[in-house]
Amino acid sequence: MRFSRRTFVRRVGLGGAGVLAGGLVSARGREALAGTLADFAQATPVLGETGIRLDSNENPNGPGGVALEAIRAALGEASRYPHQPADALTTTLARVHGVSPDNIALGAGSGEILRMAVLAFTSPARPLVQGEPTFEDCARHATVAGMPIRSVPVDAALRLDLKAMAKAAAGAGLIFLCNPNNPTGTVHPAAAVADFIKQVLHDSPETTVLVDEAYHHYVADPGYRSAMPLALENPRVVVCRTFSKVYGMAGLRIGYAVAHAETIRALRRQKLPNSINVLGAAAAIAALEQKGHVEREAELNRVSREYLIRALAEMGYKSIPSETNFVMVDIRRDVKAFQQACRKEGVLVGRPFPPLLTHARISIGTADEMREAAAVLRRALAG
User: Fold this and answer.
1) What is the pTM of this model?
2) What gap in Å lies between CA 74 and CA 78, rounded to an integer?
3) Cβ atoms < 10 Å from Cβ of 30
4) Which range marks the domain in which residue 338 is found?
5) I want to staple 323 with a disulfide (CB 3.0 to 4.6 A). Which of 91, 116, 190, 219 is the partner?
6) Is the pLDDT of residue 204 over 50?
7) Does any domain span residue 155?
8) Last residue of a domain, one of 289, 319, 352
């Protein structure tokens, strides 16, 4: 069923509960809303309701039930500025992580945190250092701001080359360390991250290291741990997290940084006013209190990810070991052509990530979606 604008307004009503109360959001998150409300929001007019979106590393299950209830309850506050909800979320995050509210900075997704860090710590004389490929937001913000960038290629195993990045750190303003790394899915253990940070700060003590832990909750590697303790000890270390992945809230745009209070003050000076929305804050607070959600979503993701890896192996393609909600696989051909072939059959996969132009990044969907997508991938790779 597709909604017209009039049907949408009639269904939602003044309280907004009509759409949110059903299985729409919980069943498919952004994809369900984009498909069903395409006429209203024009979100995905090409794919409509039949498309399978495996291109943006979203959680296909959407927010948990308590988060949806919190959204409904907060609709009456949509006319208010988000000062109180933002403060409440900061307090809740501080309690969950056992830190002070002064150690927390909120952002509109982790994307705003990355922007804040680039503006706070880089300059025309103090470049950004990053892996290549990695999540592009820091580089985008640095480019817009006119800051120089030093990109260090990943190693032969497609892991961030920490030794080479440390050598490139001399005089840098900010090092972006995405762990696990997007788009390769590889992860570095806690000891390697700690040694890297120690080396960087020994050789370049004015450099800040930003560790992006967007995929933290999916990691099963026993050697991995969060870098938050390092961030709390050292004002030159920042950890950022997001509610976009395991919590299924990519469209609600809630992220945060954990760092030394002095560092948080520097970040907050670059924050956009009122960038935290009322509904997102309410959903995030509720999600943090929902027991079992993270573990359940991580397990669902693991099962579907392993299915995809096996399916690709049966087709003759080996995936890079992944600790995330996506897989990168060398398809030994042009990624753009593969992407277009999949799209023609209603499946979106990740764009090319230079210089890995024969590697495709495929996000993890539901079990049913992965079964449907596998058939499409097989035909595209056979073509």
Assistant:
1) 0.86
2) 7
3) 22
4) 293-382
5) 219
6) yes
7) yes
8) 289
